[in-house]
Amino acid sequence: MKKSGSNRSNFIILTSLLVLYLAGYIIYHFVLQLNNLNTVYLLYLLITSILSVLVISIDEKNYLLLSGSFILVSIHITLFVIENLHLFGIEDVYLLDSFNHIVTTIGLIMFVMGIYIEITRNHKRDKMNHLSNELNESFYMEYLNKTNELLIEFSNQFINKHGLTTDRMSIDKDTYKTYILPDDAHINPFDIDAKYRIKFPGMKDYITILMKGDISVTDRIVYMGFDVSSRERILKRFSQLEQEYEKVLKLGSDYICKLSKDGIFQYASPRYAALFNLKPDQLIGRSIFEVSNEVKWFLEAVTNKTDTRGFGKFKSENDVWISWNNSVTVNDKGEVESVISVGRDITDLVLLNKSLEEQSNHDHTTGLL
């Protein structure tokens, strides 16, 4: 996989300008018998080189290189002025010349250190891109504006997973579009965050890719495509399980609700909502403190961060006795995220117990066996 075109271009320009500057500096300071025209030309060359480095250092946010370049530009302009002070009758420039050499040395040190930092950064970028190439199932793509050509380079992981026989290919846009599943033909494959299914030559099945990039670099546009097929399958399966879970809850006989840590209903089964003579969508988003006076169990669960159990009677057309199991969910920081409450109708059991108690009392009173 290639590294960023902008970083690579800046690095090449930076290295070239460094060589150019050092060559000019050596010639200017150590080659004798230069006439004024040559002197002006070399000063112009040096200042132009350093100004270019100055621009690149701003782009790369290399402040040490920026400072060194700024000092060198200023010093070279000052040097030109010093060498022409005799035109104004000033001959003794020893102190100015000494100061100039000291500051020039400092500027050169900062300049070289800035170059070193830039080389180190590029080395890190190479390592990071290499790791990305080894670990990600992705491909790098450049679109050349002038030739309408696409240059595609596949990562090792992508090649190994899909059995490709080549690590790169050069095609035009129209050919690339023929690799896309016809059902996804309406999607612009070069949009940011475009997601579509594609099958490159040599692949057995279509895969889902997510495009990132759309970064303009001089005469080309750079993209990265990531294979997200596994993630899509997981999300699809999760969606199916969620739907199945919803159906089970709707068909189930239990009373189920999910509350946020602040007591806001996030889910309510139809039977639970019916306890308040509401439908689930009328209950979701409302606070338990708004619809019920029985909130002690919720406050206890949230405050103590522990699961609780209990039972209670709900009055509707017929009194309903419900046994509750309340479960607290916490995040990795130990903070309460939600409370899930599941209730089961135990009315028949309660009525049976009452009936047995009444029979027992009756037998005890009458003395009948």
Q: Mind describing the biggest β-sheet?
A: 6 strands, antiparallel
Q: Pairing-aware structural class of the strands and helices?
A: alpha+beta
Q: What is the strand arrangement across the widest sheet?
A: 3-2-1-6-5-4
Query: What is the helix/strand order?
Result: HHHHEEHEHEEEHEEHHHHEEEH
Q: What overall form do the CA principal axes indicate?
A: elongated
Compute the average pLDDT. Answer: 77
What is the terminal-to-terminal distance?
92 Å
> Helix fraction?
40-55%
Would you count the extended β strands for me? 11
Work out the helix count. 12
Strand content: 15-25%
Q: Uncertain regions: pLDDT < 50 for 5+ in a row?
A: 1-6
Compute the number of structural domains: 3
**Backbone CA Rg:** 38 Å
Structure characterization notes:
The protein is of the alpha+beta class and 369 residues long. It folds into 3 domains: 5-134; 137-232, Beta-Lactamase (2-Layer Sandwich); 252-352, PAS domain (Beta-Lactamase). The chain has 12 helices and 11 strands. The protein has helices at 5-30, 36-60, 63-82, 94-135, 156-162, 173-178, 229-251, 270-274, 280-283, 288-291, 296-304, 347-366, and strands at 138-144, 149-154, 168-172, 195-198, 207-217, 220-227, 255-260, 265-268, 308-314, 320-330, 336-345. A 6-stranded antiparallel β-sheet has the order 3-2-1-6-5-4. Strands 8-7-11-10-9 form a 5-stranded antiparallel β-sheet, sandwiched between helices. Strand 7 (255-260) and strand 8 form a beta hairpin. The longest helix is centred in the N-terminal third of the chain and has 42 residues, at 94-135. The protein starts with a helix and ends with a helix.
